Amino acid sequence: MTDATPFDLVITGDIVLSDRVVTGGYVAVRGETIAAIGEGAPPPARAVAHHAGKLVMPGLVDGHMHTASSRGWPGIHGATMSAAAGGVTTVCDMPYDVPEPVTTVDLFKEKVGWVERTAHVDMALYGTIRKSGGLEEIAGLAEAGASSFKVSTYEYDAHRFPRIDHPTMLAAFAEIAKTGLMVAVHNEDQELVVKLTEAAKAAGNTSPIWHCRTRPPITETMADLEIFEMALETGAHVHIAHSSLARGFELAQIYRGQGAKCSGEACIQYLCMTEDDIVRLQGFGKCNPPFRSATEVERMWGAMREGIVSYVSTDHAPWPKPKKEYNGDIFTVGAGLTGMQSFAPLMYTLLVERGLAPSVMARMCSEEPARFHGLDPRKGGIRLGADADFCILERGEFVFDERTIVDQEDARWSPYHGRAMKARVASAFLRGAEIWDGTAVKAKPGTGKFVPRQHRRSALDG
Q1: What gap in Å lies between CA 12 and CA 33, rounded to an integer?
Q2: What is the structure's pLDDT at 461?
Q3: Which domains does the chain have, with CATH numbers?
């Protein structure tokens, strides 16, 4: 093949790179990869997708979502359809699956099979460890292509989502350090949360706001200090799976200054939702960690501007509606939000509202999550040789409607229902093929593929 051979596909529009926007540009594709990037008149191609005036973003990479925490592996089908409709072309899926968490190589390979048969977008996979023992599986999970590991300082389920005690966690971090992979941690202090929750229930305080009151900021920072001390001790890259507090990123920065590999991500809800929203949304606004104050949201944006947030994710958890309905006791409601299909329009909207460029989104919602999960240079950016994954945003005045969510009917709910948006996802491409045309998912089950970690370098290595 020569340079004179027509490209398979050319997409025109305003090309969003991680450092600038190429107005009136184009991206050319051969096979499944990006072969040229330019501006002006597009080159010859067998097919042209005209998106003049629209933003051609890199396909989003969601570094934190749950396809199977409520439905098991069959949930991969619906959740990845929602991803396709949201311009999220690669997802990094958590390992706390029903009925078995992904703690062994055999389970990991079985889940890969489900991905290859049922996914509509590409998927990377986390691995995890058992509540006790089983650390000998860590090396094998890394060899099988796990993008990262996940553990928790708080217990939701003793088998599926356990709290890992300090001795076991310390030993696990030491083993994970040998693989070069990142270990993300759910960061809430078990003892504090349990005692505060017991006290609230005893006093009859079970309204939605008490979810926030029983998980105050110190429950996060106490956990952050524990895991970062272990990072310093073991050399593992330890990552806060979701910080609702700017202080979490500040602590990571302090520990990096002391030689540790520490980082953290912000879920998009912590950039826009406040405690007032859980009062309004009730069970449909419950997530862990909980929403914080409006003042804390401003601090979070300060951390974003300072460049100490690693990336932005969704923590998408499509609980069936009955699990989210408030019945007078917020503590019985499932914790987690849907966020996949709203991710791109909401992030763009938040940037517009704060006068920030769309390149911030390309960097924080595509390039950086791909880098932290070792999926670069294949995923995460509009660059030569990368997979031809794109999210096309049409700018304008829109309103997000949860009824348009592409998933099982009981997962069609959103904390962002009715929110004004400054963009919508007009199209999405996965490896050069359109998977969403603005109204329908064109990808078939199995279009998505498992993406193993491409290398063992930590994103924090020089």
Answers
A1: 16
A2: 86
A3: 59-372 (3.20.20.140)
